[in-house]
């Protein structure tokens, strides 16, 4: 380094700017970070620095080093002006060496953070200032508002400002998109679960109705053998009608009362399934499903009972059998079940895998902000993490059969029931762990033949 370069104000990118501006600002950032930690202190600095004029190394106290650093300025002043800010080549070289010594030691104290991550985090957390275009420049920069930690960080690492600003905007966009996907996934989950509950209730009420009808038929056989109700014939609806139920035994009347209740429940389940199917057409826009088929002949109000419209005269065991929805058939319930199965096995895991990745990204970014360990790689990996989370979510559906609704696993909290959506959320939240699992699985699956000969 020549005297002319040492004595003149340096240009951007020169040695003086690198050492006495960027490196010096990095040291200030490290000192500010370490002074705020409870497990490290700036007085723990212990460096053997070389003495001036070729004298043996001397043990300087932390106070002496910080005092020396505090006198350094950019650009360096020449001819020894202003005390310790010597502009001579030898003094500048000595100050630069001390600065690098101290920076190296401070980085080890600040670990796992370092100067670059601290600067990046300060810029990332700083309030976004208005963009202005300096005179003679074509690139807009953030308008400065006095000296701040973020401005010191920009001076120390000029190239990090654009990346930190992009990461801040990506965080905002990901938060908004993640919230919208979460709301959509929650709505679809509620809708799908409700459909599954309707189908389950339909099957339960159908089975209960069939069981009671079987019990009524068995009881009628026993009653007729005893001479009771011999003239009562026909379907269960006719046998249990209000004008014939008095001819039955007490046991048969009780069964008829239960049948009336479960038949009404069964008809209500059919009507609910029909309404659910009509309002769920938006779920089938990408599925080749037929529309609900109308019933050709609606069921009569009381299925054969005489004088059934006079319901005010019905007795306690009167059958109330509202007809199912005229625009829905019972066999269409299975189609609803197939649609709910596709959503619960493939569509919802995709959404919840994405939501899990968003939650992991926001938590990871927040934790790194607290630890001051954010780096430009986090901005580059943000989009990749979201894609991997969505892939992990839909991949979970590949391990599920559409007939499986949930899996039970044992944990420290007891037995947990995990649906495909729950496992997809976990897979998206811990995408790295999930893909490590796939790596191990692929190694086991595709190395079986190669490892057979190496069996010990």
Description of the structure:
Strands 1-2 form a two-stranded antiparallel sheet. The chain has three domains: about 5-130 and about 145-160, no CATH class; about 185-335, no CATH class; about 340-445, no CATH class. The radius of gyration is 39 Å and the shape is rod-shaped. Mean pLDDT is about 75; it is low at about 1-15, about 80-85, about 295-305, about 305-325 and about 410-415. It has helices spanning about 5, 15-35, 60-70, 90-110, 115-125, 150-155, 160-225, 235-240, 250-280, 335-370, 375-400, 420-430, 430-445, 450, and strands at about 50, 60, 130, 140, 405-410, 415-420. It starts with a helix and ends with a helix. The protein is built from 14 helices and six strands. The protein is mainly α. The protein is about 60% helix and about 5% strand.
- What does the overall shape look like? rod-shaped
Name the structural class: mainly alpha
Largest sheet, described in full? Answer: 2 strands, antiparallel
Strand order of the largest sheet: 1-2
Estimate the helix proportion, in percent. Answer: 55-70%
Distance between the termini: 66 Å
Uncertain stretches of 5 or more adjacent residues: 1-13, 79-87, 296-304, 306-326, 408-416
Q: Tell me the number of strands.
A: 6
Number of domains: 3
Number of H- or I-type helical stretches: 14
The secondary-structure element order is HHEEHHHEEHHHHHHEEHHH
């Amino acid at each position: 380094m020549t005297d002319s370069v040492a004595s003149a104000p340096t240009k951007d990118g020169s040695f003086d700017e690198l050492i006495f501006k960027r490196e010096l600002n990095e040291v200030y950032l490290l000192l500010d970070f370490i002074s705020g930690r409870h497990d490290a202190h700036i007085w723990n600095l212990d460096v053997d620095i070389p003495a001036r004029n070729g004298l043996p190394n001397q043990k300087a106290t932390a106070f002496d080093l910080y005092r020396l650093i505090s006198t350094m300025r950019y650009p360096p002043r020449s001819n020894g002006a202003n005390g310790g800010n010597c502009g001579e080549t030898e003094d500048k070289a000595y100050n630069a060496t001390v600065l690098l010594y101290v920076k190296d030691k401070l980085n080890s104290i600040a670990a796992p953070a370092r100067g670059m991550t601290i600067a990046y985090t300060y810029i990332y957390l700083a309030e976004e200032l208005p963009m202005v275009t300096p005179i003679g420049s074509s690139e807009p920069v953030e308008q400065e508002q006095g000296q701040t930690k973020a401005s010191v960080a920009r001076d120390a690492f000029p190239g990090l400002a654009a990346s930190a600003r992009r990461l801040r905007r990506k965080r905002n966009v990901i938060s908004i998109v993640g919230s919208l996907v979460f709301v959509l996934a929650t709505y679809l989950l509620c809708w799908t679960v409700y459909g599954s509950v309707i189908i389950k209730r339909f099957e339960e009420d159908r089975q209960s109705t069939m069981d009671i009808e079987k019990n009524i038929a068995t009881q009628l056989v026993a009653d007729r053998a005893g001479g009771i109700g011999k003239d009562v014939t026909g379907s269960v609806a006719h046998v249990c009608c209000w004008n014939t139920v008095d001819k039955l035994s007490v046991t048969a009347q009780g069964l008829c009362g239960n049948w009336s209740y479960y038949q009404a429940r069964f008809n209500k389940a059919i009507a609910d399934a029909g309404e659910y199917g009509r309002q769920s057409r938006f779920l089938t826009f990408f599925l080749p499903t037929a529309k609900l088929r109308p019933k050709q002949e609606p069921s009569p109000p009381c299925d054969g009972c005489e004088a059934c419209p006079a319901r005010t005269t019905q007795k306690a065991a009167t059958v109330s059998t509202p007809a199912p929805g005229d625009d829905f058939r019972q066999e269409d319930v299975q189609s609803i079940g197939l649609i709910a199965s596709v959503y619960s096995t493939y569509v919802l895991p995709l959404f919840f895998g994405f939501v899990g990745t968003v939650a992991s990204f926001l938590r990871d970014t927040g934790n790194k902000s607290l630890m001051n360990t954010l780096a430009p790689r986090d901005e580059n990996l943000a989009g990749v993490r979201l894609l991997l989370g969505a892939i992990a979510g839909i991949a979970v559906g590949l391990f599920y059969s559409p007939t499986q609704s949930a899996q039970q696993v044992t944990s420290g909290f007891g037995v947990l029931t995990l649906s495909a959506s729950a496992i997809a959320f976990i897979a998206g939240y811990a995408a790295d762990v999930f893909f490590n699992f796939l790596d191990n699985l692929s190694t086991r699956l595709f190395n079986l033949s190669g490892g057979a000969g190496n069996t010990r």
